[in-house]
Amino acid sequence: MNNFRFHAYTDIRFGEGCIKDLNSAMLPFGKKVLLVYGGGSIKKSGLYDKVKELLSDFEITELAGIEPNPKIESVRAGVKLCKENGVQAVLAAGGGSTIDAAKVIAAGACYDGDAWDLVVDPAKIGEVLPIITILTICATGSEMNKNAVISNMENNEKLGTSSHDMIPRVSFCDPTYLYTLPAMQTAAGTADIMSHVFEQYFQKNTGAFLTDCISESILKTCIQYCPVALREPNNYEARANLSWASTLALNGLPTAGKGGAWTCHPIEHELSAYYDITHGVGLAIVTPRWMRYILNEKTVDQFCQYAENVWKIEKMEDKFCMAQKAIDRTEKFFKDCGIPMTLSELGIDEIYFDKMAEKAVCFGGLENAYIALTKEDVKKILKMCL
Ligand code: NZQ
Ligand code: ZN
Known about the structure:
Number of helices: 15
Number of domains: 2
Order of helices and strands: EHEHHEHEHHEEEEHHHHHHHHH
Mean pLDDT: 97
CATH class of the largest domain: Mainly Alpha
Number of strands: 8
Bound molecules: 5,6-dihydroxy-NADP, zinc ion
CATH superfamily of the largest domain: Dehydroquinate synthase-like - alpha domain
Helix content: 40-55%
Largest sheet: 6 strands, parallel
Radius of gyration: 20 Å
Strand order of the largest sheet: 1-8-5-4-2-3
Low-confidence stretches: none
């Protein structure tokens, strides 16, 4: 088991009605607030009005229209508003895209140069305004982590940046806000949660038994509750369990004592950077192909552990057969959730595969992945996804 640092920095306010404490939770950070949100779902759901009512004694500047796969132009607009209005704290109401944009806005507000510098080089992130979030889609775990992923479509780059100071101070997670999520966002969000776990679970064997058990529990939660949430969008138990799973999947817990570069995320980020696709959909397509590609003598035991503990597949004499069964079940699960499972269905062909593979290896540091991958390996995996 590797050494690690675990600092639970975010004050999580979880459950129906938790928003009632928004005013008192925000007060310590100052009353000049930038409210950041997306394309309008919070207006339709009534959350926008609720926030305005609860913060009626605050001075609120607004930045609407954060797009899925948030763009650097939106971040720059937010930084400008912060600087012009002397903003003291940034409140993000939405999903990972809105929260990620809010994080880099909060960092950019304290930085003299262009915000894109902070995406390319996290070392340039210095002071960061306090960030508070209200979560409306469970997927990324951004509500309790230090990461932000921003796109620059001018040069087809979608890059992750990170700073301990970008971890939200307070996050409100009310599962009833998830009731209005379209089925595809529910399914894609679940695929994202599962992929976060896979990226941390399938790493070199480090004897991190407890961490693996936590990962397996998060995966089982997704497998049990995503179909329920798809059938019954207003099922509180299903939404609540998926929401907590998403927070735990990427808050440092499933990587405690483990480590190593991720694989499917850098590959998917290239797909999004070129085609602006939904992150979780890209991951669902890439993941089973990656699993098949890296299944070998070194990895088969971890796949058998996954098969037995997550899918309850009985032990088999042929370990490869058992591992293959678990991979098939994973693929079928995503398909049954309604996710398109080939790149062709998204209108993607192999024209940019060469460039995408090169950038995935470079930005993802894939030489340090569970199974190290070269550009040629990534191209082969992408071709398997067509
Ligand atoms: O923009 P609005 O109108 O709010 O609509 C959003 C958006 O269209 C909609 N939505 C959100 N909550 C809703 C809702 N619709 C109805 N009812 C609700 N309650 O859902 C759509 C997708 O929202 P988005 O924020 O893009 O989803 P998600 O949370 O999946 O975020 C994806 C982004 O996060 C990045 C991804 O790459 C992608 O850019 N990631 C961030 C990570 C992190 N910060 O740690 C890690 C992840 O691996 C990921 O890379
Ligand atoms: Zn993800």
